[in-house]
Amino acid sequence: MSAYNFAFLDEQTKRMIRRAILKAVAIPGYQVPFGSREMPLSYGWGTGGVQVTASVIGPDDVLKVIDQGADDTTNAVSIRRFFVKTTGVRTTTRTDQATLIQTRHRIPETPLAEGQIVVFQVPIPEPLRWLEPRETETRKMHALEEYGVMHVRLYEDITRHGHVETAYDYPVLVNGRYIMRPSPIPKFDNPKLDRNPALLLFGAGREKRIYAVPPFTSVRSLDFEDHPFTIERWDQTCALCGAADVFMDEIVVDDKGGRMFVCSDTDFCERRRGR
Amino acid sequence: MYVAVKGGERAIANAHRLLAEDRRGDPSVPELSLDQIDKQLALAVDRVMIEGSLYDRELAALAIKQARGDLIEAIFLARAYRTTLPRFGATRPIDTASMAIRRRVSATFKDVPGGQILGATFDYTHRLLDFDLIGGQRNRATSPDEPAPDGGDVAPGGDLAAPGGELAALGGRLPRVIDILDRDGLIESEEPDSDRRAVGDLTREPLDFPAGRDVRLQSLARADEGFVLALGYATQRGYGRNHPFAGEIRVGEVELELRPEELGFPITIGEITVTECQMVNQFKGSAAAPPQFTRGYGLVFGHAERKAMTMALVDRALRCRELGETPASLAQDEEFVLYHGDNVEASGFVQHLKLPHHVDFQSELVLIRTLRAEAEVRAR
User: Which residue in the list A148, A205, A241, A242 is annotated as catalytic?
Assistant: First the structure.
């Protein structure tokens, strides 16, 4: 891979992306437009996350890549191989040993620590997008903190269904100022965003936006006093390690409606079994 | 007992191997050479260069070969290579009036200075499958349904000579038809931007709205041909109608000039083939401006008239605000057009639905089960 720079991107591009990241960290939850590059990986496969990771990764980093909580899903394997090929860094499946974690759709069950960076892959960064398709409008709404429509939407969900009809990518308020999409993590993971000691970076390649939640920043899932935010619960425990209070994958085991539930976080599950 | 989608590592390696086998196909059939693709599928190469924003016939041919003829996949390969290339500088604006013309037609005048030059075109062919091509190995300059004119064969590209003496009389330049209207003040005049002003580049800077015309045109040139074609067609059917006439379409070679800072004067660094379309559109006039024709512009690499024409239609549609027209259709909606025309972005996002989404789906399952359980209780 000598024809390519360390971590694929040229140094000027990395600097441009780092400037965007610094701005994102300075204004938690604010979407910073950046000159997203065309990556050798398809849009929707994590081009934003890959660019953020490529811009912050160094030779001493230890990288973990997960998709749906698992280290061995095909896209996680493919992205991990991309970075091994272009950087030669060490990789791990262990959450506590990684300095840099790129993820799609989950936050690991193992608590994150100070000094760690988590990079989220973001398909649609704009939390107001389904309420207003125009970028020119939504940027204005953020600038003026005009978030009434979002609260009305949540309210209407509750009056119609008794619940907010959003199970993942559940909107949050960051640092009391910006409404943000946490990327399509299940709302089960939302509480982990609040005052997390790790630096959380979000990259949207196709939409050309970067945003961030700096360590120990307040992140509140939107709710009402009489309808507090709740997360998913399962009656079962993990069929492999017996864990409760974790996010479960539901595995269809036969064609007669048989099901089993296992931890979505494969590293967490394996380590519990190894103990 | 529990076997989920594991072993991604080996699955990917096997998939890549199978793909390579499928790409090559039956090994008893001779392998395609890049030269064959370049010379015999030249218009496919042009499309990959246009939408890949990379003028390199050999790389485009390679991309087509590697992508098994899937042009959007080939465009993606070209783009992902282009993104790694360093920028040495920007050329000076090309001068299409001094183009070495291969083809040039105007629909607005019966004859124009320099003449109408038909060149190589599908336009007047009868779309009958030419079964003679099955056998291959035939060198013919005439179309299947027409005998060669008297006086022997016409050499390929023989039309090039057509403007001959007349072109010399015009000082080697073939003035643009639209400039004739411009001289009489019948069409809005267009002033070139200063050489010093940096041209926008949406592959380096994120889109911002309202986008400049430079960025809009770049976006349309890179946009999926089918997408732009449908939008342009829609304007003709009343969705953002702008009364177009094909003022001129010209295809040929233009020189590229670069002015290196250390030299201080421009030098020619090469030649590219381009297709340019100038649309002439009606404009009723407003309180501030008298009735006048307006312009829509299309310019693409290679020979691609359909793309250049429809690009010009959509360019004109997107100028509605600037001309004081009320936008009423999708083709006039800048955010819609610029955000959705890129086929590499679109195809990626549509196809990412193939990636596992079982975590989000599980969340939805939990929610829908809760809602249904509650509905059941209520029904009792």
Answer: A241
